[in-house]
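Cross-posted from the bioinformatics board.
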Amino acid sequence: MFDLTQYMEERRRQVHAVLSRCVPDDGEHPAILHQAMRYSLFNGGKRFRPLLCMASAEAVGGSVEPALQVAAALECLHTYSLIHDDLPAMDDDDLRRGRPTLHKQFGEANAILAGDSLLTLAFELLADTPHGGRLCLELARAAGSRGLAGGQFEDLASEGGTPDREQLVRIHTNKTGKLISASCRMGGIVAQATSSDLDALDEYGRSVGLAFQIVDDILNITSDADTLGKSVGSDAAREKVTYAALVGVEAARSEAESLVDKAVDRVTQLHGTTDPLKALARYVVERAY
Amino acid sequence: MFDLTQYMEERRRQVHAVLSRCVPDDGEHPAILHQAMRYSLFNGGKRFRPLLCMASAEAVGGSVEPALQVAAALECLHTYSLIHDDLPAMDDDDLRRGRPTLHKQFGEANAILAGDSLLTLAFELLADTPHGGRLCLELARAAGSRGLAGGQFEDLASEGGTPDREQLVRIHTNKTGKLISASCRMGGIVAQATSSDLDALDEYGRSVGLAFQIVDDILNITSDADTLGKSVGSDAAREKVTYAALVGVEAARSEAESLVDKAVDRVTQLHGTTDPLKALARYVVERAY
């Protein structure tokens, strides 16, 4: 019987070690900027994208070690996006995982620069691997104006309005989905996956990414502040229309479940160790209850 | 006799064409974000880093075409850094090259996201070339917490204080110098330069980069607002100590000149067309008069 909790703990420890090595704690110049980067990197994040990356490498028969630096890069990218999203000019959030957001703790200029530095570090870590060019291309396409940054733009632009379902799906896909499926594909690339294996990982990632965001929306409606570590109902307070608000919590849960079933089904054919990928998909939807 | 003006015009046109293709003008989604990126990209910039990149490729015997996309990436990176430096939380500038800064024109959130998107696009353009991994590594090292972003951090941190000469050189090196020497090296890499040619380009770039920043400081002291397109004496107003203020305008000019002589001398040995590189170095110091 596969033990997901143990798996996640071990993999998180491995990623932590790489991240800690990459962002110095030893006063290396400029020390305060590096401290700011570490403050956000080591803030109890679930490391979901790194886990998907490593589990994807394993699912196509690769080993974990070559995927570690890529996993760390994905966490740098994700952390940058959270730091910038929290800024006063953006979502203006004071809390992140129960602690003051970076700009609250280190000031706005340092938060902008720490985010910029983490975004850049993500590419540095990828570039410094055997498949550097291909991995950088994957990440850049997922993160730029046609991906994560564009999704955040449209998310902000949709506030106060009434986006339709098509627009909501596009925001989710760009803001969350593309990085999640890129995480899976990049794990596959490191493990030298075939093109049809990469397709399977990509489809797995797209389903899981959409489920992930739906569950986040559900939690924003149903959770209490202690569990969520941020202001509850903040989406509603900002009149941000979410999928769960649009179709209702029950229908959203059921949609997330069928997406996860589809994802699990899609990776069954892979010849490596697929238990971690399957368990991670189910873990996503379990958070919704 | 080499005609630098004509050379610059032609090369700028070529870079413009690549940039215009990469950031769509056709309403591609999200259109406003792409408009914001273009607003800053096409703002009459000198394209100094792209010019250095292309001239470096030519200096080691390569042709210009393969360097064009790399040159465009360098301009994206540079433009991102200007956009973020201008933000209210950073240098808080209202004008850039005589026009409203991006956050004044498109709002702060869009300026942050346009900067993020241009930083990401820089890596996308590099990754999508034959030497993608190596080029991304060069750029990331020049742009991250140990380069441009770290230099901007220390520049902000030094305001109101009295940094010594060592600290000033480090700020210049990180904030400006590393990207300029990376521009030269990256042009060399595209043209398959030998390792000793890359060393020559690197040293050329380091001297020119330092001269460039010294001249900028001189202009900040001596220029009028029309010429500079931004508030004059803004460094002094912010009590930002610059090299020129520390040693005086005359001594600063003479230092810039000897740096440029050194740069020109260093690339004389290269076997390609070195006239453009030499003329670009001299162009840097001519601005100081």
